[in-house]
């Protein structure tokens, strides 16, 4: 689905493209790899009363690129090896302890968290240099607004429809769920998924779904591990 979303966005580009498509795509990829909640990347930005009225939307200064030696570098450098996001607060962090999640290069140009972060961070200074006023958030498009949840939801539903799925089953939250399912399919422990997704409980397990590829070697694994 992600590849089809990317293809559809590229088709929608026009001569007046100012970087918003790149920012939108970068935010989608980050949401998938970092299991981001909609409120952490997109607007309308709201305050969470359950955590003292804080805003959880990620700020541009809290997205950090590092080279192979762990040194912080600027976006646009081919030396970027990893990206980390500092979540100063989030829905599951009632005491605002903060969390840092790091990802490394995936090996794919269009589906890479490092490249996605670089893309978002490159758009911002270009807009500022052009005189545009921007808010502090990574996905800010002007002084008061960010990429909207509805923009992402519309794209996801369009792609779902073209792939024969029921669009009503998809929304912005699908990127977070899809990322968790992908990591589970890759064989990672639920503890890793819970920590990366910043879930305060095991409630995320109700979102995950079995996929055929996840079951391919189950019988073999059960025999190897069984004491029966």
UniProtKB/TrEMBL annotation:
GO biological process: DNA integration; DNA recombination
Keywords: DNA recombination
Keyword presence, Membrane: no
InterPro entries with a match to the protein in the record: DNA_brk_join_enz (IPR011010), Integrase-like_cat_sf (IPR013762), Phage_Integrase-like_Recomb (IPR052925)
SUPFAM superfamilies on file: DNA breaking-rejoining enzymes
Single GO term (MF): DNA binding
Keyword Protein biosynthesis: no
Superkingdom of the organism of origin: Eukaryota
Protein name (record): Tyr recombinase domain-containing protein
Species this chain originates from: Phytophthora nicotianae P1976
């Amino acid at each position: 689905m992600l590849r089809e979303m990317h293809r559809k966005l590229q088709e929608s580009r026009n001569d007046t493209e100012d970087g918003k498509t790149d920012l939108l795509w970068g935010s989608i990829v980050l949401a998938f790899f970092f299991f981001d909640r909609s409120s952490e990347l997109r607007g309308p930005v709201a305050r969470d009363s359950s955590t003292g009225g804080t805003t959880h939307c990620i700020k541009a200064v809290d997205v950090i690129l590092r080279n192979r030696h762990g040194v912080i570098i600027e976006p646009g450098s081919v030396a970027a090896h990893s990206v980390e996001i500092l979540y100063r607060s989030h829905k599951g962090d009632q005491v605002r302890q903060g969390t840092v999640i790091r990802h490394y290069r995936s090996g794919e140009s269009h589906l890479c968290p490092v490249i996605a972060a670089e893309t978002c961070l490159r758009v911002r200074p270009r807009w500022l240099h052009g005189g545009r006023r921007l808010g502090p958030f990574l996905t800010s498009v002007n002084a008061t607004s960010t990429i909207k949840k509805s923009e992402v939801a519309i794209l996801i539903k369009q792609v779902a429809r073209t792939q024969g799925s029921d669009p009503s089953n998809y929304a912005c939250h699908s990127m977070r769920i899809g990322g968790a399912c992908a990591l589970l399919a890759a064989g990672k422990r639920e503890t890793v998924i819970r920590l990366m997704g910043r879930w305060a409980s095991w409630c995320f397990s109700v979102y995950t779904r079995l996929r055929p590829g996840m079951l391919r070697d189950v019988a073999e694994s059960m025999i190897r591990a069984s004491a029966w």
